[in-house]
Amino acid sequence: MPLQSELTMDVGPKTTNQVPACCSARYNLALLAFFGFFLLYALRVNLSVALVDMVEPNISLAKNTTSNVCPEHSSTRNVPRNTTGEKYSWDADTQGWILGSFFYGYIITQIPGGYLASKIGGKLLLGFGIFGTSVFTLLTPLAANLGVGYLIAVRALEGLGEGVTFPAMHSMWSSWAPPLERSKLLSISYAGAQLGTVVSLPLSGLICYYMNWVYVFYIFGALGVLWFFFWMWLVSDTPETHRTISHAEREYILSSLKDQLSTQKSVPWRPILESLPLWAIVVAHFSYNWTFYTLLTLLPTYMKEILRFDAQENGFLSALPYFGCWLCIILSGQIADYLREKQNLSTVCVRKCFTLIGMIGPAVFLVAAGFIGCNYALAVAFVTISTTLGGFCTSGYSINHLDIAPSYAGILLGITNSFATIPGMVGPVIAKNLTHNNTVGEWQTVFYIAASINLFGAIFFALFASGEVQDWAVSGYHLHRN
């Protein structure tokens, strides 16, 4: 602890005076990563919008009955739209397989992605992960023409490519992010994911409406390939290998990470899997994603079947929750590092407080969503507040891997993200089985389950999380405090 405390006191003031953030190599990395994750999520969600136009209108998306609790108030637009895109007769089950196939590829490469990043570096892995996803996105219209099996295979391959990206990014930040700037740098880079959702949802709808659904895949895919060339040209795995980094910045980063990184070649798998602080992150990550996917996939259905208003008719309203989350991620990253650096709050205190806000807040508003009657404005407000508050978790459990084991952050994220992908696969299925009759009571049960899981995850993290570098994660097994 004394060594780390002296280091923090010595290095902290130099951040602003001698190593400015503006135009620095580490913030350039954060900005490029921001655009990378922006495109990554645009590539992930664009199919859910395009699929509406890819399927013949007479194929029913769902056999569930619509509740008559609320009056109908959807409006149909009479604006002429492009109808030249190919149509396919895929039933609801087939569409479910197409949309779900992404996650089956995504979950496979989480832990291998973290391990590979620690061996070959995150630059190549993240770069080729997004490049591969972009190429398969460009092939999506061809795959759809060849048959549904080809489309499912292409989506699963996209999932394989995206699966390595978050562990690779975490692995890179273990070499690039000074401890007192972690929240800021990581929140900037990962905020791109939320903004990608904000932009691509309405934009994909407009492209389908005025052009043709194939251009959704061609435009975003081409942008992903273009980003890849900038990434490979401008980014380095470590400060030591960066071509244009200033001497002052290189020394600042390296000295701030001194004694936090391990030099041992083998991965300490057993201590990792026995680490309670890691399982605290696993439980929090799983719980948060259960609520996140409930909001992402089921609230539009709730609005349509119970409130009888199709949220997809207004691209701005469907994207509003993610815009709120994006803002919250950016701001919470700044606040978290301010509290740690200027107010001397401990790392573990900041991580726990931000996780509690980011998990209990959404749970409360999720339960409230079941009791709003037919008030559509309130429904939009609740889902926006719920998703926005979830942004606090980015400076909570989401980057805690780097606090407890910087050298193995990529592997740790691979482990937690593997568990956190499961809610995306099983959550909507369970909810669908609980809402056969689309009654208000059935939907309240869905929201209760999601909120309870979130509450449990928040409490578990608050009890067992740590802000210290674990003894198995540093050379010589010394314990240092952030």
Description:
The chain is mostly helical. 70% of the residues lie in helices and 1% in strands. It is built from 20 helices and 2 strands. The protein has helices at residues 2-11, 14-17, 25-54, 92-108, 110-120, 122-138, 140-146, 148-163, 165-176, 182-210, 214-234, 247-256, 269-273, 276-305, 315-341, 347-368, 376-390, 400-404, 409-434, 440-464; strands at 468-469, 480-481. A two-stranded antiparallel ribbon has the order 1-2. Helix 5 (110-120) packs across helix 6 (122-138) and helix 15 (315-341) runs parallel beside helix 17. The model is unreliable at 1-17, 60-64 and 477-482 (pLDDT under 50).
Write the layout of secondary structure elements.
Layout: H1 2-11, H2 14-17, H3 25-54, H4 92-108, H5 110-120, H6 122-138, H7 140-146, H8 148-163, H9 165-176, H10 182-210, H11 214-234, H12 247-256, H13 269-273, H14 276-305, H15 315-341, H16 347-368, H17 376-390, H18 400-404, H19 409-434, H20 440-464, E1 468-469, E2 480-481
Antiparallel strand pairs: 1-2
Helix pairs in contact: 3-6, 3-10, 3-11, 4-8, 4-19, 5-6, 5-9, 5-19, 6-8, 6-9, 6-11, 7-8, 9-19, 10-15, 14-16, 14-17, 14-19, 14-20, 15-16, 15-17, 16-17, 16-20
For the residues shown, what is the average pLDDT?
84
pLDDT < 50 stretches: 1-17, 60-64, 477-482
> Tally of extended strands?
2
Secondary-structure element string = HHHHHHHHHHHHHHHHHHHHEE
